[in-house]
Structures are given as C-alpha cells and as structure tokens.
Amino acid sequence: KQASGSVQGTTPNSNGLPPAVVNGPRMNATFVTLARNQDVWEIARSIRQVEDRFNRKFNYDWVFLNDDEFNDEFKKVTTALASGKTKYGKIPKEHWSFPDHIDQDKAAKVRDEMREKKIIYGDSVSYRHMCRFESGFFFRHPLMLDYEWYWRVEPSIELYCDIDYDPFKFMADNKKKYSFVLSLYEYVETIPTLWNTVKDFTAKFPQYVAKDNSMKFLSDNGGVDYNHCHFWSNFEIANANWLRSQAYLDYFNHLDQSGGFFYERWGDAPVHSIAAGLMLDKSEIHFFNDIAYYHVPFTHCPTGEQYRMDHKCHCKPEDNFDWKGYSCLSRFYELNDMKKPEGYEKEQN
Ligand code: GDP
Ligand code: MN
C-alpha cells in the first residue's frame, strides 16, 4: 500500500514516504514522568503511545524522576522506546519527606481516620509525598531546570488520535501557560480546608491574583466557596517557568506551611488548578480538545466524527467524559464564551 498524507509542514522524501521527523525548530521542552521501578511496563505502554501518536515526529527529551534509584531494566526499556534523549533523576530527600513543622501524631491520626472512611489513598504516606512533590518540586529538579516547557505523562495512559503539530509551540505562540484535557470535581474529603487556605494566601498577596482570572470556573458564588472543579493533572502541558515564579512559589509555600498535604490529602491537581485559575489570565489556560486521552477511569474523545477520522482516532465516542454530569468542562466553556461542539447534548448522560 502506498503511503499517503504527509505530516503538516513537511514534504515527502525522495522515496515518496513522508519524512520520519518533522523539520523545523523545537521548543525548549521535555516530557516528564514520575515513576517507580515497578511501573516500568505501565510507563512503557504510555511511552509507546506518546511516541506513535506524536513524539516519533518531534523527538523531544524525556525526564524520569523517582524517589528511589532507577534500576537498569527501567532505564533500558524506557530509553529503547523513547525517540529523544532520556534522563533519570533521583529526587532529593527534602522534596520527598515531612517538613519539620508537621506534627507526626496528628498526621498519623488523619491517615487512620481516612482509612476507616475508605478515602482513596487516605492512609498512604507515599501518595502524600507524591502530591506534595508534584505540587511544589518537580519543576525545580536539576534535570528539569534545562527546560521551559513540560508535558507530564503517567503510567498506563492512552493517546487516541494523531497529533500532527507541536503542542509546545502552540502554547508558546498563543501565550498559554497551562493546559488540560479532562476536568472534574475533587473528593471533598481530601481538601476540606484547601480553599480557606487559598483565601488566606490571596488576602496576604492580592497582587498575585490576575484581573481576568478563572474564578467562575472554581467558584459559583464569586469565591466564597470552592466548587471542587479542577483540571486533571496526570496530563499537563505547561510552562515550568510559571511554576518557578515567585508568585507560584509563595503560593506553594503558603499551602505547605499550613500542613494540608499531610493533615488532609491535598492533590496536586486542585493545587495546580487553583493556582492557574486565580493567578493566570484566563486566556493563558488552554483546553486541548484535539488531544484524545485516557487515564483510568476517564476518557477525552473529541466530539466530531470528521476530526476523529482525519486523525485516525481509536477512542469510542460514547466514552467521552466532556459533557457528562461529573465533568467541569461546561464551566470552562461558559467562562471563556466558547461554543460547545455540535451534538454535545447527546453526550450528557
Ligand atoms: P493516581 O493517578 O492519582 O491514581 O496516582 P498514581 O498512582 O498514578 O500516581 C501518580 C504519579 O506518581 C504516577 O506517575 C506514579 O507513577 C507516581 N508515583 C506514585 N507514587 C509514587 C512513589 O511512591 N514513588 C514514585 N517514584 N512515583 C510514584
Ligand atoms: Mn495515575
């Protein structure tokens, strides 16, 4: 069968096949994955999909981070799958441990209570270190300091459509700083005092609150209460320099001081989302409708058959979470005066 169609912005080679790699400039960007050695085969699946759908044409680097030393098998398998340079880093102890001000007895008691209440990861210490690390430290790891942009990839995700352009470049060209594909409501039990802690922060640092922010995405009553909407952070394409800014670091330190990562079970998703929603201009947050994605248990499958055909998508349209009751995407569309796609009403149940 003759190869048909060439990658956008490229011309076929003399052999008639589309070039294996898209010509042109690259952004200062990397993939970043936090994983354990035992996650090797789950992350292998993710890398294979990211490479097939996008990165084999762009060859961006891939940074792997771990609180432990990566073993040879992990490095061998992931380096073989990735088309760009791979780098492996160990997380410094201070970025993966209890800060001194944490009362250990109080933290242990919370974990016992959450275990009784069967709150997901409620009894886990390592999950809390993970959430705190993803909230405040991954972008400061020495291996990450070389990069301005990152794309976070977790084990066992799927990409369902071809991505024929460079999302990093799209972000830069369109002055975006943060992006998402899925948004939903957080479990209230994991963040009971997060919003009040954020309000203390914005009262102390009003200069960090963007004038044209996304408060309407986060709150239904002008900021009095949090509606628990957040962007799901297992997928993120974002600007690491924004996270390295004094504004974000002051925000993270304020949250960290309050102890909520350990006295509750704050996730990095609501932490990033509230920061983006309040401290970025709403035009700086992008919804990647064209990146079809799965992380258990939710799917983003772009609405519109023509798009799915043109991009060789293999997701099941009925699985699309966008317009379901538990999704927050409608709020994002309404906040930004975006037109919902043809046929979205049929996907609401
Ligand atoms: P979930 O998506 O909230 O269910 O959480 P995951 O189990 O997927 O963890 C989120 C990310 O952190 C994934 O990339 C995991 O591989 C990684 N992760 C979770 N716990 C640990 C840990 O203890 N050590 C390391 N190195 N990575 C972890
Ligand atoms: Mn996950």
Automatic annotation (TrEMBL):
Active site at which residues?
E236 (nucleophile)
Single GO molecular-function term? Answer: alpha-1,2-mannosyltransferase activity
Enumerate the UniProt keywords alphabetically. Glycosyltransferase, Transferase
Tell me the SUPFAM superfamilies matching this sequence.
Nucleotide-diphospho-sugar transferases
Entry GO terms, CC: Golgi apparatus; membrane
Superkingdom of the source species: Eukaryota
A Pfam family assignment: Glyco_transf_15
Ranges in a coiled coil? none
Which BP terms does GO give this entry? cell wall mannoprotein biosynthetic process; protein N-linked glycosylation; protein O-linked glycosylation
Q: Which family is this protein grouped under?
A: Belongs to the glycosyltransferase 15 family.
- Supply the name of the protein: Glycosyl transferase
